[in-house]
Amino acid sequence: MSEEVSVQSRPDRVAVVRFSRPPHNYFDGALIGAIADAYERLDEDHGCRAIVLCSEGKHFCAGANFAAKNPAEGDLYEQAVRLFAARKPVVAAVQGAAVGGGLGVALSADFRVASPESRFSANFARLGIHHGFGLTVTLPLVVGHQRALELLYTGARVNGEAAHAIGLCDRLVSADRLLEEAIDLAHEIAISSPRAICSIRATMRGDLADRVRAATAHEATEQAKLFDTPDFAEGVTAAAERREPRFTG
User: Fold this and answer.
1) Which of 51, 87, 141, 249 is the most exposed place for a label (fewest CB within 10 A)?
2) What is the pLDDT of residue 68?
3) pTM of this prediction?
4) How open is the CA angle 17-106-91, to the nearest 5 degrees?
5) Which residues of 28-56 are buried (b: 16+ CB within 10 A; e: fewer)?
């Protein structure tokens, strides 16, 4: 197991998968792959019937560090598809920000538990880049096509209460009860018939992993086209300087 990903197996048949890459929990293919490794091990563990995904620190996940490299390079999206291919249900506990690809990680789970202080944002257009991590598929499934367009076009930041209102998160609790509530929801799932849950989940998710694989292939191509543009450079600089970007197109 990676030092950045830990697994806690609980007596209530819930496993807690926790990732940690301070201070912002930026990911790369290695980190996402380590989470997928944990999922696949738990798929074979009959003592686990549901998974809680959480992270250390102030924020759930800030996505990829666009200032460092093009995240579409390497095997990031190959590893991302593995999250969707795992067989057991996942509840994400989302504290602080789930931004960009971090929102994609949160949407790889079956459910999201958040607090009023949580923040969700598909901020790619504000950075001058195409969205990624399968949001083409997952975001419309959760909030509907029109709301997904609005979130992707504007890069708007949505707090926990607004996210709950549009279905972006499923349960809203105080920040101090976030992980507890996620575990409670996972436990509610875990006491159902495990064979029935796996069967129902396979039916309801259908070809989701294959759809995400096709989506990420397209997303990566579009991201590569925009990565070296002046608008992308301006978007990253503006974000670092906490100002409104001045795009030229």
Assistant:
1) 249
2) 66
3) 0.96
4) 50
5) bbebbbbbbbbbbebeeeeebbbbbbbbb
